[in-house]
Design brief:
This protein has 3 domains: 50 residues; 55 residues, no CATH class; 75 residues. It is elongated, with a radius of gyration of 23 Å. It starts with a helix and ends in a 5-residue tail after the last helix. The longest helix has 20 residues. The protein has 12 helices and no strands. It has 218 residues and is mostly helical.
Length: 218
Amino acid sequence: MKWLNTVIKYRLLLGFLFLALAIFVNIQTSFWPSFILYFVAVVLIAGHFLFGPMRLIQAHMEAGDMDTAKKVVNSITFPQLLIKPMRSVYHTIKGNLAMVDQDYNTAETHMKKSIELGGGALTKQAEGPNKLQLGMLSMQKGNSKEAEAYIRQAIRAGLPDNENNAAAYLQLCSIMMNKREFRAAKEYFRKAKGFKPTTPQIVDQIKQIEKYIGRMPG
């Protein structure tokens, strides 16, 4: 809904305009004729600080416009004022954008903050992907034990699509291979293939593992 995105984009400005109009009407007449204007102003201004422009940010990210998404998220001056679920989404988005920039330390910090907030449907929905991201970061740091723990937690929490599930099981497969637990590695590889991912990177990873997993004992 483009009109809603426009309202969200200019919500704070509209709030102050309605507030100015309410004050003018109040001075010219009395409080009650201006009440609805005050009410709309409060809703718009409070909405700006409590809910933030998350809808706009996600729209830009889905469109692949990361630069604009980053500008919008960086425009949030007081993230601590966001309600808890929105603050969790804020940290998730900051973490994802940091991942795009390969700033893994910042990404890890924001992902952990998002998980720590807990509670709410939005936060619950992001829990699995956030823990999967933390697992990937732990793998990059060479901490396979921590990576395994996060990835298992991510699977239990629930992942949103076949691509994420395939990526999670492929990571577990790699961890089991490194631990020489070949039977488990084969089982996780079978599960990863069962999700039939289409992301080129994941498909390529499956092809690479498939070349030698059949020769493993177990």
